[in-house]
Amino acid sequence: MRSLLATCRSELERKNFAGRTVTLAEGAAVVLGTGLLAGAGRTGGARDSAVLVGIGALGLLDDLLEPHHRAQGRPVSKGLRGHFGALRQGRVTTGALKALGIPALTVLATAGAAERGRSGRVSVRGAGLVLADAALVAGAANLANLLDLRPGRALKVVLPAAAALATLSPGEDPSGRRLALAAAVPAALALPVDLREHGMLGDAGANALGAAVGLAATRVLPVPARLVLLGGITALTVASERVSFSAVIESTPVLRAVDRLGRRAPEEAER
After folding, report:
1. By the 8 A CB rule, do 202 and 24 touch?
2. Per the count of CB atoms within 10 A, which of 31, 74, 211, 223 is most buried?
3. Alpha-carbon span 93 to 12, nearest angstrom
4. What pLDDT, on a 0 to 100 scale, did the predictor assign at position 241?
5. What is the pTM for the complete model shown?
6. Distance CA 100, CA 84 (A)
7. 220 contacts 168 by C-beta, under 8 angstroms
8. What is the spatial distance between Cα 70 and Cα 167, in angstroms, rounded to a whole number?
9. What are the angstrom distances between the C-alpha of 253 and each of 17, 36, 51, 150, 231?
10. Are 246 and 149 in contact (CB under 8 A)?
């Protein structure tokens, strides 16, 4: 039993940007917490929970397998362009599985919001909104992961976004507030661990939190606001293929100050 626990702990350990040893157990715990809170509702809760846990599981698969691929000397693709490029060459990467699996899961999560005509069939406009909302959720999941390059960075974006969505009127669908809290609560609990560099979200935690925020947005924001948000996320995702978010943040005083707030100093010794 001890050897099994030691193996599991070793598999979850990583070196972060500063060379400190952190654990991906933080991200796994965030996925679990997000899934449990999302599933607390009576209507659609089980579906939302399954989707978020599934997204987190795809991220965890990527987290766990990528180091083994590196150790075996196998090429590791980065970014959407890299993963789809690998697919064109006949290589299926864990990143490609995420790039295909997450959108499929988000369509399942947003399909219930489709507008139906008198015949009971999904209207063209309803089907279009399903796909737009699914793209928003998948984009939010990916953006959170792109931001998770420094301690606390992704969480400092997820927390205020989730808190803002939780305060909006839920209207006839209370699931939006529930989903916002499903992101906010685990993110708040993870923030001290993340800032002290004892753990990290990894793809698993970042994808799950981003998806929960995106899904909450599809339930509480009006259509125009959702389309604007989708446009902004898409623009940032495209820009990330050419521009380093870390470089932009470090060169912008206000962003740099917020990014470093609460983080350990580079010279601070391990405790």
Report:
1. yes
2. 211
3. 20
4. 85
5. 0.87
6. 10
7. yes
8. 44
9. 21, 38, 38, 16, 26
10. yes
Residues facing 23 on adjacent strands: 13, 199
Count Cβ atoms within 10 A of the Cβ of residue 90 and give its class: 0-12 exposed, 13-18 middle, 19 or more buried.
exposed
Model pLDDT, residue 91: 60
CB 150 within 8 A of CB 263: yes
Of all helices (H) and strands (E), which one includes residue 22? strand 21-23
**Cα dihedral: 172, 178, 179, 180 (round 10):** 100
Please enumerate, as own/partner, the contacts of 236-243 that have beta carbons within 8 Å and a separation of 24 or more. Answer: 236/143, 236/146, 237/80, 237/139, 237/142, 237/143, 237/146, 240/79, 240/146, 241/79, 241/80, 241/81
With a cut of 50, which residues of the chain have pLDDT below it? 115-120, 124, 269-271
φ, ψ for residue 211 (rounded to 5)? -65, -40
13 CB neighbour count, 10 Å cutoff: 13
Say if CB 47 and CB 215 are below 8 A apart. no
